[in-house]
Amino acid sequence: MSRMAGQFAGILKVGVEPQQYDDLIKALNNLSAHGIRMLLAESVVETSGTTRPISMQLVGNDRPGIVRDITRLLAGQGVNVEHLITDVAPAPMSSEVLFHADAVLGVPVGLSLDDLQAGLETLADDLMVELVLRSEE
Fold first, then answer.
1. pTM score, whole prediction
2. Cα–Cα distance measured from residue 118 to residue 99, given in angstroms and rounded to the nearest whole number
3. Regions in the chain scoring below 70 on pLDDT
4. Calpha distance 134→122 (Å, rounded)
5. 51-135 CATH fold
6. pLDDT value at residue 80
7. Spatial distance between the Cα atoms of 80 and 106, rounded to a whole number of angstroms
8. What does the pLDDT read at residue 48?
9. Hey, where are the domains in the chain?
């Protein structure tokens, strides 16, 4: 959730028991009376077993296009970004701005953590300060 062009914007994923679904949709639609605009979409839980969850913590020098470069590289390896939180903050001992990313990735079962890390490290010359990958299983 964030502010974009002076407006609050966000995506929220909600899970609810099937018997409560209709009540939830009705309550959400009633928010329009308070000036809240939203788009509701249903999602399905994928249980194919072709990916495994991996957490990624990354710190690097901030620059325009950093998220695009990281996600393009991940997509090229067949990795899905399941959850992503990003932030920028000043480096502790300098005026440099550091980019921070915490993510949960859906990594193909056939892709090793070493290969994933090697792929991400190809961005290291101008990006990475710290990279940690860890299995969520």
1. 0.64
2. 20
3. 1-4, 44-48, 124-129
4. 19
5. Alpha-Beta Plaits (3.30.70)
6. 92
7. 5
8. 60
9. 2-34, 51-135
